[in-house]
């Protein structure tokens, strides 16, 4: 991980900056970070609540991100834009699925 709780990953030809949030149940990617080639399953829209209030997702999409030398696939919830300096959130669902171990003292994360 780099920064405080951010990780940079590759997605397609882009580098994304994702917040690692162990308190977030779901992983989110903002629509502007998508390449346009993804299929978004709009039947999976859900209502989510966070520190900024309540909103709805657009749907879900299976996204392949490159973390180090590994390509990991995960079903991200797609949201419309956010006025924030990140491309999405890696939540507890992603961390559990990929067997993450987080060392907060050294700002280090290990995925199985």
Molecular structure report:
- The protein is mainly beta.
- The protein contains one helix and ten strands, in the order E-E-E-E-E-E-E-E-H-E-E.
- The chain has one helix spanning 92-97; strands at 6-11, 14-20, 28-30, 47-50, 53-56, 59-67, 70-79, 88-90, 101-103, 108-110.
- The longest helix is centred in the last third of the chain and has 6 residues, at 92-97.
Core attributes:
112 residues; mainly beta; 6-stranded mixed sheet; two-stranded antiparallel sheet; 1 helix; 10 strands; globular
Q: What general outline do the C-alpha atoms trace?
A: globular
| Beta-strand fraction estimate | over 45%
Based on CA atoms alone, the radius of gyration comes out at 13 Å
Q: Mean of residue pLDDT?
A: 88
The count of strands amounts to: 10
Distance between the termini: 15 Å
Oligomeric category: single chain
Structural class: mainly beta
Strand order of the largest sheet: 1-2-8-3-7-6
Helix content percent band: under 10%
Sheet with the most strands, sense and barrel status: 6 strands, mixed
Name the helix and strand elements from N-terminus to C-terminus, one letter apiece.
EEEEEEEEHEE
- Uncertain residue ranges: none
Count the DSSP helices: 1
């Amino acid at each position: 991980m780099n920064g405080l709780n951010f990780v940079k990953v590759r997605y397609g030809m882009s580098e994304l900056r994702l917040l690692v949030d162990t308190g977030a149940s779901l992983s989110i990617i903002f629509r502007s970070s998508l390449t346009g080639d993804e299929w978004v399953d709009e039947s999976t829209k859900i209502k989510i609540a966070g520190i900024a209030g309540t909103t709805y997702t657009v749907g879900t999409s299976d996204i392949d991100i490159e973390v180090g030398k590994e390509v990991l696939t995960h079903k991200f919830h797609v949201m419309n834009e956010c006025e924030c300096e990140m491309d999405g959130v890696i939540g507890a669902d992603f961390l559990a699925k990929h067997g993450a171990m987080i060392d907060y003292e050294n700002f280090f994360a290990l995925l199985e």
